Amino acid sequence: MNSRLSLLLAVVLSSAAHAADPFEVFPRVLPSPAADLRPAAVCNPPALSGPLTLAHAVERALCANPATRSAWLASRLRAAELGQANSAYLPDVTISGNLGRNGDSVLPNDYTSWQIGLDAQYLLYDFGGREARSEAAESLLAASLASHEASVRDLYLQTVTAYFNLLTAQAAVVAAREVEASALAAFKAADARVGAGTSIPVDRLQSKTQYTQRQIERIRAEGTAARLQGELAALMGDASQNRFTVVDNDWAFSQTPDIDIKVDALIEAARTRRPELRAAEATLLAREAGVKSARADGLPRLSAYVDARRQDLDALAIDSSSVGVSLAIPLFTGYRNTYQIAAAQTQAALAAVDRDSVNNQVALDVWRAYYKLKSETEADSRSTDLVESAAAAEKLALGRYQAGLGILLDVLSAQASLAQARYTQLLTQLGLRVARAELAQAMGELSWDWMEPAGREGTK
Q1: For the ranges 81-85, 210-214, 246-250, 400-404, which has the lowest average pLDDT?
Q2: Which pLDDT score, from 0 to 100, does residue 417 have?
Q3: Percent of the chain clearing pLDDT 90 (strictly above)
Q4: Upper half-sphere CA count for residue 371 (Cβ side, 13 Å)
């Protein structure tokens, strides 16, 4: 008996020492918060400084932003819960022992006693409850992995939008400075004409007012650019690290998606790709398994047990052991199981509603992105002509005024039109690239190839 007890104890202790992940659930969670878009190695970048490309900005955001790290850790938690559920397929083994000093009237002398025992319990059958809990944990892990992927792609789109917003804001600063310079030229021309007596003093005042307005617009444009730089840095994990400059890559999101395909076909394709829908489907499966588990909790449980122990009372030693099966039949639980089943069924119904809601949202996302891309494509095709005609009109009006042939009102009006045309062009260029990203996101196709050609993912 002693040899059997020692052998079982050695096996248990050895297994506990070497079983950090016996069910191998943690390798199912990717090693990086950036999911499968980038290798884990990119998550150790240097501090932010110098030129920053769009691809590097997205990499930093995926690795450092709390949203992706939280989703990644949630997947690790679900993996651990799956391991807990699978542990029900193995026996529970417990070692117990006690040591005491005793004395009583039968044996007037105090004596020392000790006892050590080993208990093992193994569930043989519970009407599918153990299997249902394992299925639920498996589905919840799948849902969490899909939710992690969805979080990654949401942050990808947010970073792309923030990056393009900053690029547009910086271009707006350049445009504002050019408009300010034009307003200054108009003011100098008006001042010269008033000094020469060929124009009235109100022209000088109007041109100065216009010049001051352009200065204010330039100051506000610079402030907007600074604010957007902080927002991009925050997406990359630290708003205080804003000592960087963004550089445009004309290749990024310059690809033109095929918008000749009917939107209904795009919606159906998106429903097969979007991770949010996969997460909702997996959650529904988990809740349905929860109903089976709740029903099984109210049914009998058949278990096997083994017990071995040794007791020593000074000179008296006693060995005992037992082996057998036990059956537990719930008779009355105060209707607890009735309400557990009702709660599980309600959770499954809610999960079905959530699945339908996500399904509808996927269709709406594709619809919105599809028609936004179509309108932005049309608008962008006309923005260049808009700026060219406005610039020609402004140049002509200023030249006529400087030559003494025109009036100041024409110059100020032409400058305002040019400023608005340049700003409109910036917005259409931004809108077109963001619309491409939004449609790719809505379709579940927002991959690294939008920023770097295939085969260049590892290039820096």
Answers
A1: 400-404
A2: 83
A3: 41
A4: 6
- The length of the chain in residues reads 460
Q: Which residue has the tokens 């990203």?
A: 437
Name the nearest CA neighbour of 412 among 172, 214, 199: 214
Look at residues 424, 393, 386 and name the one whose alpha carbon lies nearest to residue 410: 393
Residue keyed to tokens 């009583």: 104
If pLDDT is split at 50, 70 and 90, which confidence band does 3 have? very low
Q: Could you state, in order of their start, the residue ranges of all structural domains in the chain? A: 36-94+128-303+339-450
- Mapping DSSP onto H, E and C, the string for the chain reads CHHHHHHHHHHHHHHHHHCCCCCCCHHHCCCCCCCCCCCHHHHCCCCCCEEECHHHHHHHHHHHCHHHHHHHHHHHHHHHHHHHHHHHHCCEEEEEEEEEEECCCCCCCCEEEEEEEEEEEEEEECCCHHHHHHHHHHHHHHHHHHHHHHHHHHHHHHHHHHHHHHHHHHHHHHHHHHHHHHHHHHHHHHHHHHHHCCCCHHHHHHHHHHHHHHHHHHHHHHHHHHHHHHHHHHHCCCCCCCCEEECCCCCCCCCCCCCCCCHHHHHHHHHCCCHHHHHHHHHHHHHHHHHHHHHHHCCCEEEEEEEEEEEEECCEEEEEEEEEEEEECCCCCCCHHHHHHHHHHHHHHHHHHHHHHHHHHHHHHHHHHHHHHHHHHHHHHHHHHHHHHHHHHHHHHHHHHHCCCCCHHHHHHHHHHHHHHHHHHHHHHHHHHHHHHHHHHHHCCCCHHHCCCCCCCCCC
The answer on pLDDT for 351 being more than 80 is: yes
32 pLDDT more than 90: no
Residue listed under structure tokens 């450092």? 64
The predicted structure's pLDDT at residue 47: 66
- Give me the pLDDT at residue 9, please: 47
pLDDT at 296: 94
Higher pLDDT, 20 or 299: 299
* Nearest CA among 338, 344, 353 for reference residue 287: 344
Which residues lie closer than 8 Å to 23 by C-beta, 6 or more apart?
Answer: 82, 83, 86, 87
293: closest CA among 145, 88, 141, 144? 88
CATH code for the structural domain at 36-94+128-303+339-450: 1.20.1600.10
> What is the pTM for the complete model shown?
0.82
C-alpha gyration radius of the chain: 36
